[in-house]
Amino acid sequence: MSAADLARLQFAATTGIHWLFVILTMGLVPLVAIMHTRAALTRDPAVRTTRERMARFWGQLYVVNYAVGIATGLVMEFQFGLSWSGSSKFAGNVFGAPLALETLIAFFAESTFLGMWIFGWGRLRRGVHVTLIWLVALTAYASAYWIMVANGFLQHPVGHEVRDGAAYLTDFGALLTNDSALVALLHVALGAFTTGGVFVAGVSAWHFLRHTTETRLFRESLRLGLWVSTVASFFVVVVGEMQRPVIAATQPMKEAVIRGSGVAELQEQLVREHGPGNYVPWEETVRFSMDTMTLIGNTVSTITLIALVLVWKDRVVRWRPVAWVLVAMIPLPFLASVGGWVVRELGRQPWLVYGELTVEDALSNVGRGSLLVSCVAFIALFVALAVTNWTLITRFVRKGPDAVQLGAVEPLPEGGPGGEGKQPVATY
């Protein structure tokens, strides 16, 4: 493998693994917010307690995934300087702005609100506490917006001019309203909702297969997960098709590869426009990823709709084969979303900034040996983090709500902090 191939493999593998953390984080947080809101609005003490335990159970899984995923996100930033310094030299003035805003505004705010929510159980008023988890959800999607703005510039560079071999931002509004970013963001958000809903429904079904005694908690979780995933999986397919005209207008070669026609003609056109070179991405890989994503999307949409109908009179709970299908379906949205990113990123090759900077030109002046070592090290680290994450999630899932540590504090008395000389002590 060449140095460029190693750098691409490293970035593709680490980004793909990082995305598995991100999509579950984005998918779980709105569901946890809904659960917490329902608990806060419930007047019946027994039902409210169950719903609070439900929010804490799923919230703990969210926190574990978020915490481990942060490490993969931090490592991602270094790769631009280590392997792709050409991208910083050419597009850093434009590409760096949304990344900086994502870090300063969205990520810092999200982490702050999440910390307050984690340690706010038993300390904050219900309204304030619920508001915090919604702020976490809002900032999570704000973070996704800035990332998609940056990625949208790579897909369809707008709002800039090139001077002395470097891009300079001239229209910030055009950058923020880039069609390639906005439509993709909606597609990503709906994919995250689908992933979170399928995860919640699948884990709930697994507990029913184990004859759980937490029937109210997991019945409500199952219904919420199916409702969210059914609606989201339908619209994610619709929005996916809405991207096709945008792709055809901005990246005709990618659309031709997906469609399977007109590739040769576009290759000749791009040679005339940009000079000699191969402007055709890996056709079979792009088309296979597209077909896989579409097949999984339609399958998940169909199964969740059927399961939602069967939720009536608890048929999903009583019919074990249906519950097993829901459990087996948990990995599918993850696979579909990775397939979508393969289409989006590999389909624009050989460009890093479409039409303006190739991958080869963006590569740092790093030796093949150094890239081989960093590639193996980064991939091994990310795989280890992914295994750790899912081991912890599986362990907490198996233990169930009774073993939840999130919010395991001694609540504050009505009169204020302290009470009889006691301070609440967090155990998570």
Automatic annotation (TrEMBL):
One of the Pfam families matching this protein, by short name: Cyt_bd_oxida_I
Topological type in the membrane: Multi-pass membrane protein
Subcellular location: Cell membrane
Name used for this protein in its record: Cytochrome ubiquinol oxidase subunit I
GO CC field: cytochrome complex; plasma membrane
Major subcellular site: membrane
Region described as Disordered: 408-428
GO molecular function: electron transfer activity; heme binding; metal ion binding; oxidoreductase activity, acting on diphenols and related substances as donors, oxygen as acceptor
Lineage: Bacteria, Bacillati, Actinomycetota, Actinomycetes, Kitasatosporales
Organism encoding this protein: Streptomyces finlayi
Family per record: Belongs to the cytochrome ubiquinol oxidase subunit 1 family.
